[in-house]
Amino acid sequence: MKKSMYNIYIQGKKETAIFNLLTRNIIVISNNEYLNFDKLINDEECKEQLKSMGFSLENNINEIELMKYTLNKGKFSEKSMTLFLSLTRQCNLNCIYCYQDRRKTFDEGNNFLNKTAWLKIFEFLKKKSINLNELHITLFGGEPLLNKSIILQIIDDLNSLKNQTLKIYINLITNGVLLDKNFCEKIYKSINYIQITIDGNKSTHNQLRVFPDGSGSFDIIYNNLKEVINLFENKIELRINVNKEIILNCFSLFKKLKEDSLNKSIAINLHPIFENQSSFEYGCKKNTDKDLILQINDLYNYLSKHNFKFRKNFIEGPCIAKHINSFAIDENLNIYKCPGFLYSKSNGFINDIGEINFLDSDFFKEVNSEQKCINSCIYAPICYGGCTWQNKCNKEILDLTLESQLKSYLISRYNFEI
C-alpha cells in the first residue's frame, strides 16, 4: 500500500489531522501514528479502512488516472443535479460594490420568475427526476424574497417530487431585508441552507449595503437574523464581503454576534469584494491581493478560537460548469453553464414542454474540457482546472489559503490543538 498523493497533513500538539482532497474525508491520528503512517497503512487492522476512505491505495494504482476517473464519473452522472434559479433580477438594495451590473441594465423579458415559467422548469425537473438521486437547487437573484409567492410554490412542488430514492436540497441566497419570521415559519422545514450578507460592523455595512434612498440596512437585517435564528439553527451562513479596510471593522461585528449568542448557530464566510462588475471581472482574472488573503486567513484563525463556525467552502469544487447536469436559469428560462454568466449569452432555454433547446456547443465544450495542469497538481480533485468564469489558475490562492483555513476548520469543528 502507498499513501495518497492528495493527502494534506496538519500536525498539531498531540495529534495529526489528515484530509484527502479526492474523497474529502478527514481522520485524526496521534503524532506517533503519523510518524509511522507508512506502517499504519499496511497494518492488517487499519489498511482496509484507510483505503476505503482514500488515504491509501494499492501500489500498482495510478492515482492520477483514478482521480480523473472518479471526477469524470461524477461530472457525467445523471444521478445528481445542481440548479441555480434566479427568481428576479430586481433588488431592494443598491449596494455600492454590486458586481451584477449586467442584471441592472438587462431589460428583456420578465423581471420576475412567474408561475407559468416555473411550471416549465418543474416539468423539466420531473423528467430529470426519474434518474436523479440528489437535486440541489439554490434560489437567488436579484433579491429572491421579492418573489415570495413563487418560493412557496417552488417548495410545495419540489416536496411533491421527494421519494425514497430522491433527496432534494433547497438553498436560499438573500440580503436578509425581507427575511421576516412569519414567512420563515412557512419555509424553514424545507430549507437546508441560507446565505445572508452583513459587511462588517453597523457603520461599515450602512455605507456599503444601502437602500435606493441611501439609508442603511444593518438594523433590519441583523434584527431579522435574531428573529429567525432558532428556526434555521445551523443552517445559516453569514457572508461577509471584505477589503483591507472592511476587514479591520469585522471584530466589533463578531463581538456583537457573540454577545447575542449567535456565534454557535451560524457559519462565517469571508469573501473579497470588488467595486463593480468591471473590477470584479478584472480581479478574478488577475492574482488576488495576497495581503488580503493573509488577513482573511488570520481572521478565520481568530474566529476558530472564539467558537465561531464555518463551512468547508474552501474546498468546494470542481466548478459546476464541468458537470453535465448543472445549470443556471434566469427568469425568462434562459440556460447558462453557471450563475457567473447570467444575462450574458445564454447556452439555450427551457421550452414549453420542459426540455432544453441548446443554442450552441459551448455548454458541452466546457464539460468535455480537461486542463493539462490536473496531471501534476495536488489540488486537481477540488479544482480540476479552475472556475470556468474566472478562467485562471487557482494554485497560488490555494497555496495561501487551504492549509491555513483547514487548520481553522479543525479548531472550530473538532477542538483540534495546533
Automatic annotation (TrEMBL):
Gene3D superfamilies tied to this protein: Aldolase class I (3.20.20.70)
Keyword S-adenosyl-L-methionine: yes
Keywords of the record: 4Fe-4S, Iron, Iron-sulfur, Metal-binding, Plasmid, S-adenosyl-L-methionine
Record flagged with keyword Heme: no
Domain Radical SAM core stretches: 77-303
Molecular function as annotated in GO: 4 iron, 4 sulfur cluster binding; metal ion binding; oxidoreductase activity
PROSITE patterns the record matches: MOAA_NIFB_PQQE (PS01305), RADICAL_SAM (PS51918)
Cofactor(s) this protein cannot do without: [4Fe-4S] cluster
Superkingdom, taxonomy of origin: Bacteria
Family annotation (InterPro entries): 4Fe4S-binding_SPASM_dom (IPR023885), Aldolase_TIM (IPR013785), MoaA_NifB_PqqE_Fe-S-bd_CS (IPR000385), rSAM (IPR007197), rSAM_sf (IPR058240), Sulphatase_maturase_rSAM (IPR023867)
Name of the protein this chain belongs to: 4Fe-4S cluster-binding domain-containing protein
Originating species: Clostridium perfringens
Taxon lineage: Bacteria, Bacillati, Bacillota, Clostridia, Eubacteriales
